[in-house]
Amino acid sequence: MAPETLVLLSSREIAKMRQAGRLAAELLDHLEPMVKPGVSTLEINDEAERWTQAHGAKSAPLGYQGFPMSICTSVNEVVCHGIPNAKQILQDGDIINIDVTPILDSYHGDTSKTFFVGTPSPTAQKLVEVTRECMMRGIAEVKPEARIGDIGAAIQEYAEAQGFSVVRDFVGHGINRIFHTAPQVPHYGKRGKGKRIRPGMVFTIEPMINEGVWEVEILADKWTALTRDRKLSAQFEHTVAVTSDGVEILTLREEEALIESV
Questions:
Q1: Contact assessment for residue 171 and residue 151, using Cβ atoms and an 8 Å cutoff
Q2: 32-76, pLDDT tens digit by residue?
Q3: In sequence order, what are the residues at sequence separation of 6 or more whose Cβ sits closer than 8 angstroms to the Cβ of residue 245?
Q4: 103-124: pLDDT as tens digits
Q5: Which CATH class is domain 11-261?
Q6: What are the sequence ranges of the domains in the chain?
Q7: With a threshold of 0.85, does the pTM exceed it?
């Protein structure tokens, strides 16, 4: 559970978060070529750990509340917190969310993307595209004096209009030197509700969108979350900072920066 104390970051602290966020984005870019049939999720994890150490950072998930690996790899019906392992081999048509959080100079950079393995089904392609759009619509709501509920409302409205559902069990969160802190950022809700958004807030927006029902089940490992109906789930995540006049995405990948500038 995230602590209730809300911390507003200084410009110096946001600069540190920007550096950590950039490293997280670069890590996802580095791992993307490994996402292909025949590769195990453990191989991706091990390369992430090697690369992170080589860049003077640490993997926040490793050992966090007992989590055994350096990244989360959530394949197909896994909603989040999938544990990489040697027996899980990527197959053509799979989708996989890779969630990375390097710690650089004590600050966390947290981001994730759902990738296609080979050629996706039309349903998988639509789900992944809608999920990214949900994240971007949520980010577009972030500005001073808006409400946290505005973010979730924008995400829920779009996801449900496309025939998908929004996971309720996991939310975005404040992040800085602490991995998970206030505020909590639900990906569903009502406009005008929730905490008021203020400059200096830094938090993640990370909607998990399901093909079928929104309910999830947790496996016996106490981490892996699956869709209750075992249909597909996708997720995207960015860390954002609230500025005096809007929002800055701290984990923007190079390819996204090009898209957003067009």
A1: no
A2: 999 999 999 999 999 999 999 999 999 999 999 999 999 999 999
A3: 143, 144
A4: 999 999 999 999 999 999 999 9
A5: alpha beta
A6: 11-261
A7: yes
